[in-house]
Amino acid sequence: MDVRTVACDGCVHMRVHAHRGNTLAAGAVVLAAAVVEAELRSGTTTAVRVALLVLLASVAALGALGSPVEAAGLRAYQELLLAITALAVTGLVAHGLDLSGASPGRPVEAFWVAVVAGAGAVVALVLARVRSATIVLGLGAAAAVLALVAGTGAAWTGDDPRVGIRWALLAAAVVLVGAIMVRIDRRYQQAVALADALAGVVVLLAATFLVDDVRGAAELLGLPRATEDAGLGWQLLMLTAGFALAGLGATLHERGPGWLGALALVASLGVLARDGGGFAGWPLVLVAVAAVLVAVALRPVAHRGVVDDPVPDDDLPPPVPFRPRGLARVPPDRDRGDADDLL
Prior knowledge:
By secondary structure, this protein is mostly helical. It is built from 11 helices and 2 strands.
């Protein structure tokens, strides 16, 4: 492994060469594939699984935390290595619980899922805070939502845990909306990652109403048969959130919130359709709203603005040359290493 050793007072820091970060990330991905394959094989001993996870976490953490950060932010390989580090540590927590006697059980207990997902969320959010990362922030937000859902389901004392899970998801949605509003100007990419997590929350919220429509899903999750459909408030909330997320993705030209928002919208429409009935109801309401929007867009224009004193062509500034985002020029003073040192 190619690293630079920097001596200090009684310690040694390992620094990864920037131009070899992609190669290190590729090695970490291959090692992660080996870890997954070992986990899937029943004949693999626990000691081997833990050793592979420790090795993966060490390699990924070395590349993620030991590589230099440029002024423009983290590179793609650094984001990937941070995510792999969080996942590897989460796997170690799961094996640690298993070795301590807290096995997941069959089916997997909700409390065990809450502990493992909560630990993974803490690790991911800490890494995101330390390195101002984006991917691991979204991963931590998703793990936190999973821990919240599993913990609420395990602690709920009522007849149907889905009631508590819905309110927990609503609280998570409010927190995510606040975090998005705080970051939308200063840390745009992090706001987009949190918008992806928010779309996942809306999908999970709709799934709490749709799980009975999937044969055997409620029994597999240990849920009782639902006695009532979604109320008007839940329907309005999910429908508004679905349209808002899809519109946000289209406005910002971001595929993540756009596609996930469209999925949340489809799931919300599925919840609305469970009450049956004909055209009267939500279909009529949506047609009326669509008609108003189309009428506003096609309304006649009263007059056109006329420029009284147009600017002569000679006074116009020269056009800005188009340069694709992916073909940005590299500053000549960047240390790219020797030509034979790129691999």
